[in-house]
Structures are given as C-alpha cells and as structure tokens.
Amino acid sequence: MATQVALDQSLPVSLADVEAAHARIADSVVRTPTLVSRTLSEMTGATVYLKFENLQFTAAYKERGALNTLVQLSDEAKAKGVIAASAGNHAQGLAYHATRLGVPSTIVMPRNTPIVKVVQTQGHGATVILEGDTFDAAYAHARVLEAERGFTFVHPFDDPRIIAGQGTVALEMLADVPDIDTLVVPIGGGGLASGMATVAKAARRPIEVVGVEAELYPSMYNRINGTDMPCAGDTLAEGIAVKEPGGLTSHMVRALVDDIVLVTERSLEEAVSLLLQIEKTVVEGAGAAGLAALLAHPERFRGRTVGVVLCGGNIDPRLLAYVLLRDLARSGRMARLRIRLQDQPGALYNVARIFDCERVNILELSHQRIFTNLPAKGLSLDVECETRDRAHLDRLIAALQEAGYEVRMVELA
C-alpha cells in the first residue's frame, strides 16, 4: 500500500483540486475545530486530536463534497436540478446546500428508510422519493430519473469533485495542528479517505493515513487486499456499511492509504459512549470508527500524534440510549444478576438487605417460577442494579455468595 512518495499524476484528484475546493466552500461550511483530548490520549497512549465534523449544520462532513459539486454545475444543470440516492448524511448535505443555492434536489431513498431521515431530508428542501427495498434499487431508480428528467446525479463518493471537497477536512486539520503524523479516517465508499490522503501525501513530511472499516463491512479492505470476507449484518456504523466501494476511490486508496484496520461492533459502541462521556459530543457509529480503531489497536498508534475525524453525529436517540446502557453494563456500573431463591416468606427481603448493606441501587426485579429448570419450590430472581464500578459489583456478588446464594451475571454479547 501507500508510502511517502510523490503523488501519482494519474490520480483523479490532486492537492491543487482540494485547495481549490476549499476556496469555493470555506465561507459556506463550518470550520470545525480540531482539539486535543487529554483523556483519550492517556487512554490510548497516543496524542489524540479530534476533528469535530459532527458540528456541521447537517452534522456531517458530507456537506463539503456536495457543495463543491454544486457550485461547479453549469447554470443549465442547476436549473434542471440534482438527484442522489442516499438514506444518510449525503442526502441531507446535498439537500441543504442545493436549497440554499436555489437548486432543486431530489433524493431517492429505500422504502424502509427510517421516517426521521425522510423528514430531515425533506426539511432541508429536497423532494424525497421512496423506491425499492434496498439501496441498490433506490440507486437504480435515481439513475432512471436522471436520464428521464435531465437531472445531474451527485454520487456520494465516486466523483473527483466529491473527493476534493472531502479532502478539505485534512487541509483544515493539518493547518490547525501541523504536528499530526497519522490520520485515522473512516472508510465506507472511500471518498473521505481518498481526499484526506491526497492532502497527507502531498505534505513535506511523512504523514501516515490509516483507514477504518466496520468488521461487518470490510469492502475496501477486500478490494485492496484481495480477500473475500462477507459484507453483511447490522452494524452501528451504517454510514460506512458499503458493500461495493467506488472505482475511483479504490484506485486512490490503493495508491495513498497506508493501512486499513477493521473494528468490531463492541469497539464502535465503546467509542460512541466514550465520546459522549468524555468529550460531551454526540457521534454516530461511523463517526466514532476512528476512535474505535485507537481503542482496538493501541499498539498500532502508541506514541503517535493522531488526527481522528468525527465525521458525523446523526444517530437515532433511542439507539444512542441503548449503546450507553450497554456500555454501563460492560463496565460493571449496571448489571443483571440471576439469583436462586427458595419460595418462602422473607426471601426477597433477605436479598434486598444485602443490596442495601453494599449500597447498591436496585432498578428492576423479575421473578421466574414457571419457565425455569429449578425445583417447584425454587424460583429465579433477576435483579437489575447499578453500582459505582466493577469492583463494587464484585463486592456485591461476593456478599451474596457468602450469604449462601447461588448467583450469576446475565452477560451481554
């Protein structure tokens, strides 16, 4: 993969293209901050700088490439309008800036797109068409409408104008923090990684670029490394859950990106939770992928000055709540204990006394008498509780066992 060499002149995007894109869009997108995180730096052993692209108006970096494309359209193309297939951040970024520039926009989404995303995209001024049960079906319909109505199709990643716009993220990061020696970039279709790597590899000093994909969707990893791992499943990082990366972006990633690492769902959940707790910032699964890589591969980045892009913050509030609660459970601050009791008066009271003595708060109780393999006079009690930390939980379990109770934790996957 990439080394620090002169940029291949055959690549479709150059540093000059990215700099020109920045000149076009700088006044119309947020110059998001790049800030050091002392706590995350201590946790990972790297000096960690975060680029808060979740603070864009539509909460994602996708605005940059969309706007860079829109402002380069001819007057005739602007009058006819643009079209895209997207159920995510590309849809909102394109719709917002198209409306702001007076360009009609149409977004084709699969019929099963969550209603909140449909409403948000319509709220930015786009006409939303629901078509097909998959992204591929929505994409095919968008290309039909493009031909029938003379729209300009705006690809989410496989377009030099999009790639150049996304590369402006790296221009700003390296201008703000010249000491960065490693960029960690989420990869879905590859537009962001391609653009940022273009900037990094044009620098006068070595800057490593590491792409990050969800373990369930290693599409670019497969393309670059010749592997055939499956791309399927429900990932928290749906923004980078791409089955087929772009042709242009694959060429650029192969030439410019030094490495691609894969992260598990558990690492993604931990990263989302830590960013909220430590940095007080809401980040979607794809936006947390860079931090997830540092958490999962600390030896890979230890001692480096690392720039991490928090590329988006559009996460469903209910999903965010689940992620936070699961993280509390994994850290021992919340637990569900299954305790075997005898079905007799005072049994629950005696157990509750132990929780009180250990100063553990009981959140929920559930008895099971019927669907259990215990004897008829026995019962299973599930106690959901909250503790200060893992050590506090361990003391509670030890106290229950010392009192003669059979107890086990109901573990998360």
From TrEMBL:
Question: What keywords appear on the UniProt entry?
Answer: Lyase, Pyridoxal phosphate
What protein is this chain from?
A: Threonine ammonia-lyase
Quote the EC number.
Answer: 4.3.1.19
Cofactor(s) needed, names only, are: pyridoxal 5'-phosphate
Enzyme class, top EC level, equals lyase
**Gene3D superfamilies reported in the protein's UniProt record:** 3.30.70.260, 3.40.50.1100
Query: Which SUPFAM superfamilies does this one have?
Result: ACT-like, Tryptophan synthase beta subunit-like PLP-dependent enzymes
Q: Give the source's domain of life in one word.
A: Bacteria
Stored NCBIfam families: ilvA_1Cterm, PRK07334.1
Q: Which reaction does it catalyse?
A: L-serine = pyruvate + NH4(+)
Q: Which family does it belong to?
A: Belongs to the serine/threonine dehydratase family.
Gene Ontology terms, MF aspect: threonine deaminase activity
The UniProt entry, under Pfam families, shows: PALP
The taxonomic lineage of its organism, from the top, reads: Bacteria, Pseudomonadati, Pseudomonadota, Alphaproteobacteria, Sphingomonadales
Q: Which residues form a coiled coil?
A: none
- Domain ACT, by residue range, is 336-413
